[in-house]
Design a protein that fits this description.
3 helices, 3-stranded antiparallel β-sheet, about 10% strand
């Protein structure tokens, strides 16, 4: 029997990167960022902060729109 993960799924909320390697709004049901993505995009500051638990998606989107929030202020830097 396959053991189910108890981690909550996470969503990538940044812009699409790497010519479609990582698409905005991709959900990772394992609750973990795949290692190949961490290696591929290690040059992006705070890359991991663009992955949020599904339960916090609404709040994270609000923060992205708020340029006064540190989270939102860093978002435009991701390319």
């Amino acid at each position: 029997m396959k053991k189910r993960s108890t981690k909550e799924a996470i969503v990538y909320i940044g812009r699409t990167l790497g010519n479609g390697v990582l698409l905005q709004n991709t959900v990772f049901s394992s609750g973990e960022i795949p290692q190949f993505l961490l290696k591929e995009f290690s040059h992006i500051p705070d890359f991991e902060s663009l992955f949020v638990p599904v339960s916090l998606l609404g709040e994270a989107r609000k923060r992205l729109r708020d340029k006064g929030d540190a989270f939102g202020a860093n978002f435009p830097k991701v390319k």
